[in-house]
Amino acid sequence: MMIELLEPLIPALRRYARSLLRDRTAADDLVQDCLERAIAHWNQRRVDGDTRRWVFTILHNLAMTELKRRSARSSDLDVESAENWLSTPASQEDGLHHRALLRALEALPEDQRAVILLVSIEDLSYADAAKILDVPIGTVMSRLSRAREKLLKSIREMPAEPAGRSHLRRVK
Amino acid sequence: MISRPITEDDLNAFVDQRLDSVRQAEVAAYLEAHPDVAERVTGYAAQRDDLRALLLPIADEPVPAALNVRHIAERHGRRSRLPWWAAAAAAVLIGFGGAGGWTLRGLSDPPLQGVASLGQEAADNYVVYGPDRLRPVELRAGAGTELADWISSRLGRQVGVPDLEASGYRFMGGRVVATPHGPAALFMYDNDHGMRLVMLSRPMTVDRDVPMQPLSQPAASGFSWAAKGMGYSLVGPADAQALLHPIADEVRRQIGNDV
């Protein structure tokens, strides 16, 4: 039962961890740690609770600890540059635009980035996101609102992309 | 009817398609009348689509071996020291079932009664729950009076939990289990070596007062008795009969004091 419930969650857990950490290896280490904990504490989950939400909570807390640890060690630990951590490199036409969007996402405060990822990518309900982040649902909504506004602003402030330049600057 | 004012929450839920159809239509009408807000919301929706295009494919990557949950569970199982006798009990059980033993026994023997039946029930439950690593007990020892309340409400009488610390066994917790003679209380104990004992107790209609008698089975051994209408059976590993005798005596002594 445990394995049947955990196994289908793994791809999404990897995606959430990697989107937060922007580092392939560190993210998978985190997911492994998360799975070990979920298995070790399987009896402690609420029987009527939602396994997905419970496991995401474990992962989120591990990720926040890891991010704090990294920021404490300041910038000597450089995150993987550009979009190496992505599954598929951005297509050429969209390269610049996507790069700008990812940079804007990275620039968000962690708690806002987490909300965007849980809601927009992982399709968790606002209520589940609130439980995972351990905040009231109103906080989820205001973080979501602020995050979207900031992303939009950053994208629009990006210099326009003249057709000629985009060829010069495009990512391979 | 005056509709509720449109909020930022509505706009976000509109982007995430979390609104019911009525509200969705209200927001759409509002956006039609407010092009500036509509432009912002369109930007949010495009941003959401772009992020999904970038990030969703991560989940399509093959899962690396290190994240194989079966391997992790197996490793975890080994680390939490699955006692050797649990594996032995499972092997015996599988052999038994495979040989058609269960079916034959049910067909040829008269149904057990009294403490003989109680002993069988205790052994059956020991074989099922004893090796259970995930949920050996329904309510853990720390659950306060919840377990005692549950048991007394199902059995219609109080069952005291014997304290076996002096014999080296900690109380793990318990559960209500089914027997052919109605609900029974199951208490589980373990020692430092991961050896588990099960005590089963239920009201008796036959054999209401019987002295202690041994039970010995391929996968379990122990002692059963009845006093004042309640039956008790203490079981453990098949080869632990000698060790179980003094513990059963201790349980009987404690229960005798309680009643």
Structure characterization notes:
The complex is a heterodimer of chains A (172) and B (259). Chain A folds into two domains: 86 residues, Rna Polymerase Sigma Factor, Chain: A; 85 residues, Winged helix-like DNA-binding domain superfamily/Winged helix DNA-binding domain (Arc Repressor Mutant, subunit A), CATH 1.10.10. Chain A has 172 residues and is mainly α. Chain A is built from nine helices and no strands. The termini of chain A are far apart. Chain B has 259 residues and is an alpha+beta fold. Chain B has two domains: 53 residues, no CATH class; 176 residues, no CATH class. Chain B is built from nine helices and seven strands; from the N terminus they run αααααααβαββββββα. In chain B, strands 1-2-3-4-7-6-5 form a seven-stranded antiparallel β-sheet, sandwiched between helices. In chain B, β3 and β4 form a beta hairpin. Chain B starts with 7 loop residues before the first helix and ends with a helix. About 5% of the residues of chain B have low confidence. Chains A and B meet through α1, α2, α3, α5 and α6 of A and α1, α3 and α4 of B. Chain B: Keywords: Membrane, Transmembrane, Transmembrane helix. Chain B: This is Anti-sigma factor.
Strands in their spatial order, largest beta sheet of chain B: 1-2-3-4-7-6-5
Taking pLDDT < 50 over at least 5 consecutive residues as the criterion, the unreliable ranges of chain B are: 97-109
Level of helix content of chain A?
A: 55-70%
What is the second-level CATH architecture of the largest domain in chain A?
Orthogonal Bundle
Shape of chain A: globular
**Alpha-carbon distance between the two ends of chain A:** 45 Å
Task: List the helices and strands of chain B in order.
Answer: HHHHHHHEHEEEEEEH
Average the pLDDT over all residues of chain B and give the rounded result. 84
- Secondary-structure element order of chain A, as H and E? HHHHHHHHH
> Number of domains in the coordinates of chain A?
2
Number of domains of chain B: 2
Largest sheet of chain B: 7 strands, antiparallel
Largest chain-chain contact? A-B, 47 and 36 residues
By helix and strand content of chain B, what is the structural category? alpha+beta
Identify the CATH class of the largest domain in chain A.
Answer: Mainly Alpha
Helix content of chain B: 40-55%
How many angstroms separate the termini of chain B?
70 Å
Provide the low-confidence segments of chain A as ranges.
Answer: 76-80, 161-172
How much β-strand is present in the residues of chain B?
15-25%
Oligomeric state as shown = heterodimer
Strand content of chain A: under 5%
Keywords (chain A): Sigma factor, Transcription, Transcription regulation
Organism (chain A): Azospirillum endophyticum
Family (chain A): Belongs to the sigma-70 factor family. ECF subfamily.
Protein name (chain A): Sigma-70 family RNA polymerase sigma factor
